[in-house]
Q: What sequence folds into this?
């Protein structure tokens, strides 16, 4: 089968595209013909050796995928050939024509959901959902600030925040990105490239501060948020797409009485698979009722995976980037 291959940690243009052994389904696994692969920021870090995980090389990158069941192992009874599924691989390998994964980690995809959108639903929306539901316990009527609100996980947080009844402030680096955030439900908009974020937050919250911050960016924006939290607020640390990992002055948490909360979605899916499955079912229900959707920016052929990784790490995405083995160069 064709696959994207990381032979050594190296710049993105060193990714190879070629033949890779066809996987087989173990007793508790299912073999999936991949329809689409969701692109995520860690994918681009991983193949360059810049992520905390360091897989043995060579390996096939990619974790988030949708596809059709090709075969199942002897112990698998809840899936059959032809079923539409979405999954998250804990051992990468999604950037290929086929992938074999534990059947228990696969979730059926309703016919109403296109496969390319299903592939973009797990990590971006799953992370935002877990962050706002389990980690922040976001309540209706609270104020939610979403940084990087036009990226895949940022847009997801805007949609999910609205679905949970919050007042959503979207922060972006351009007017074009803010327009997209507004289309996805944001109530208030801040261009933090041209406007002072701290001043805007104080005005929009009447000096109270923000109840929940969803921060996948880090850097200086995080620093501003540490000084603009409401009492009993929750500052969610989701990632560092801006490149800089900030240092937190813990005295602010004491004086202002708020919490800094880490969000590691991958660990959650492994630690509590039942809650993860419940979350995904709720997301799929929300999708079908129109509360959330996947905004796809660009779809790339499998052979152009390096381009997709470059665009996500350079923060060019407006929503979700998708790779498809079903389209040609």
A:
């Amino acid at each position: 089968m064709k696959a994207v291959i990381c032979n050594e940690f190296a710049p993105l243009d060193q990714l190879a595209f070629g033949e890779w052994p066809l996987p087989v389904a173990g007793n508790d696994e299912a073999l999936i013909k991949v329809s689409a692969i969701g692109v995520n920021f860690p994918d681009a870090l991983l193949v360059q050796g810049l992520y905390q995980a360091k897989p043995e090389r060579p390996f096939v990158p990619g974790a988030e995928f949708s596809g059709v069941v090709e075969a199942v192992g002897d112990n698998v009874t809840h899936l059959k050939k032809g079923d539409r599924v979405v999954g998250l691989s804990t051992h990468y390998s999604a950037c290929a024509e086929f992938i074999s994964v534990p059947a228990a980690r696969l979730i059926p995809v309703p016919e109403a959901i296109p496969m390319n959108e299903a592939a973009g639903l797990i990590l971006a929306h799953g992370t935002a959902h877990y962050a706002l539901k389990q980690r922040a316990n976001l309540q209706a009527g609270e104020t939610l600030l979403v940084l990087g609100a036009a990226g895949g996980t940022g847009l997801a947080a805007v949609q999910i925040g609205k679905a949970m009844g919050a007042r959503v402030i979207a922060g972006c680096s351009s007017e074009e990105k803010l327009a997209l955030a507004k289309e996805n439900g944001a109530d208030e908009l801040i261009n933090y490239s041209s406007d002072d974020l701290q001043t805007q937050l104080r005005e929009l919250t009447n000096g109270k501060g923000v109840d929940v911050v969803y921060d996948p960016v880090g850097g200086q924006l995080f620093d501003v948020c540490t000084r603009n939290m409401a009492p009993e607020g929750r500052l969610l640390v989701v990632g560092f797409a801006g490149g800089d990992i900030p240092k937190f002055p813990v005295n602010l948490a004491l004086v202002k009485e708020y919490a800094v909360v880490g969000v590691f979605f991958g660990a959650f899916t492994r630690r509590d698979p039942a809650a993860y499955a419940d979350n995904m079912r709720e997301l799929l229900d929300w999708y079908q009722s129109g509360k959330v959707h996947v905004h796809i920016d660009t779809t790339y052929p499998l052979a152009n995976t390096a381009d997709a990784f470059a665009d996500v790490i350079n923060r060019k995405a407006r929503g979700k980037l998708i790779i498809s083995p079903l389209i040609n160069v």
Remarks:
- Residues 2-121+294-324 form a domain with the Quinone Oxidoreductase; Chain A, domain 1 fold (CATH 3.90.180.10).
